[in-house]
Amino acid sequence: MAFKTIADLGDLTGKIAVVRVDLNVPMADGVVTDDTRLQAVKPTVDAIAAKGGRSVLLAHFGRPKGQVVPEMSLKPVVPALARVVGRDVGFATLDDALPSNEVVVLENTRFFAGEEKNDPELAKRFAALGDVYVNDAFSCAHRAHASTEAIAHLMPSVAGETMGAELKALQDALGAPKRPVVAVVGGAKVSTKLDVLHNLVAKVDHLIIGGGMANTFLFAQGIDTGASLCEKDLKDTALAILTAADKAGCKVHLPTDVVVAKEFKANAANEVKPATEVAADEMILDAGPKSVEELIAVLAEAKTLVWNGPLGAFELTPFDAATVALAQAAGKLTDEGKLLTVAGGGDTVAALAHAGVKDSFTHISTAGGAFLEWMEGKALPGVVALG
Known about the structure:
- The structure is a single chain.
- This protein is an alpha/beta fold.
- It has two domains: 6-165, Phosphoglycerate kinase, N-terminal domain (Rossmann fold); 177-375, Phosphoglycerate kinase, N-terminal domain (Rossmann fold).
- The chain contains 13 helices and 17 strands.
């Protein structure tokens, strides 16, 4: 995963950097309600400015499907971005002459049908805006679009500050990690993470499977999961993954005790019992305290942790207990310098924030699809193009 960064660029005085960023932020009544993605733009804009350059930002917003949809214009994002980066930010369409602002936001790239088709002609128009290309949108790196892939072949291309940090963290986590490596994979269904599981068993030393998908693995081993969410038709697939893990020397950890309830709701009457004793009318909603204790012991011996998905129905109290306990143990080990922790995925970020350890993890990726495809071992077009 070799790539250049802004540090590799020469003096940019009088030059323009065309920067692909992620400005697909939540809005309400024309106002940005969460500026997390805007904050991620600042380090790159600052780095380009430090070299004397100006930034023209390419980004998409929503899914206009190649049509001009006024409600999906990026113009309302400009004031919030200006506040975050602390610079003069202008706005332009691709047909406008570029204004002289330090930073210019270009209108929604997906207003052009050629964007999602990776059209080389559209990429040429984007490239004509500046002198160098900087990709700082890891969240879009799994898509081969005109503003993420084709353009990178037309001009000197590097990773932005946020993208570079993300790629380094991912390389440290699975590319060339310190061992033992532990992966936590949770969530509702095995079917959504088959490629992730197949890839990880060949790369990690311990695979912790949680959430609804753990039920499928328990069922595959002949354990009755009662009324729990369980993909019984994937029994053979689950067994194949377990066999592959065994051959690769990867130890798979499933809950040995579980928290069950008869209703899927917060504070439902619940009971802790061995995973082998779930009644027909009971649902497994979390891993039990004995399982958590065993998993914390696994983390205590690890050097690297990759996390995607909760261990239980973390959005419902008290079925968040296992996720919170393991996350806090990981956060503490990270704070003590004993564990490198990388996490990603929407539910994961929410779960770690809920556990109060979002700031303790070494790196948290806000990229959903790109992070998942990286965990699947797939090449990301936006990254490959920078090589």
